[in-house]
Amino acid sequence: MSECQDMLQAVDKAARKIGDECGSTEVALIAGSGLGGFAGRLSDRTVMPYKDIPGFPLSTVPGHAGEWITGTIAGKRISLMSGRVHCYEGHDACSLAFPARVMARLGVQILIVTNAAGGVNKSYQPGDFMLISDFINLSGIHPLCGPNIDELGPRFPDMSNALDGGLRNLARSAARDEGFDVREGVYAMMSGPAFETPAEIRMLRILGADAVGMSTVPEIITARHAGIKTLGISCITNMAAGILDQPLSHKEVLETGELVKERFALWMARIIENI
Ligand code: HPA
User: Fold this and answer.
1) CATH for the stretch 3-274
2) Least confident of 58-67, 154-163, 181-190
3) Smallest Cα–Cα separation from 125: which of 233, 202, 211, 247?
């Protein structure tokens, strides 16, 4: 059996387990820092720890719950991934692609991906939200490396409109309804786990990046490969390295996430309601 069939079989096994026990939904959400508590807002929840899903990659990051949750918010049933894996944890391309492939096989049509990010654009401020219009993958890893799974999508998928313009418009008006404006810009993915150097941030700015983070791009690429529409949202938790005369810390990332989580959750509920 080819490696590729192995992968599809593993994905299907995971999708069957989730489908049987949690059901499938049209919309899925991957919650990054800042949306950690969102799961608590879902009613009629079915919770499945990742460790109970065959083949599902496990996160080692403290504070990442590692649960697949199906529940209702704003009258809609959604699937929520509370916790995700990152390339800096040592996961390979297949593992990074696995969750979005499972979504594809479950019949998910829209994926909302959220993250915490550093502001590269100097006009941004901690606490801002940025709709991701496009991305630059500087992580050194590509989730579609390895044999292509033709059942999911083509070998050379187009990434011209990886982030859906219609969903961005919907998210922007949902934010206005909640009484705030959002930024829109380019997300650069670096591998981490160290925060970037000031020189790297200057480079990213020259390259056209507005925000920088260590996640999200693998999930967007994999979802697009499989024909899932994507909406990406960054919570700017800190200014990127070298902009302010202060060291960066994960503590600051978590603190800003905590400050904006109420607003983020209300906005997210409205987005889901309007989809
Ligand atoms: N760099 C990379 N990832 C991040 C940052 C940052 O400044 N802030 C939150 N995630």
Assistant:
1) 3.40.50.1580
2) 58-67
3) 211
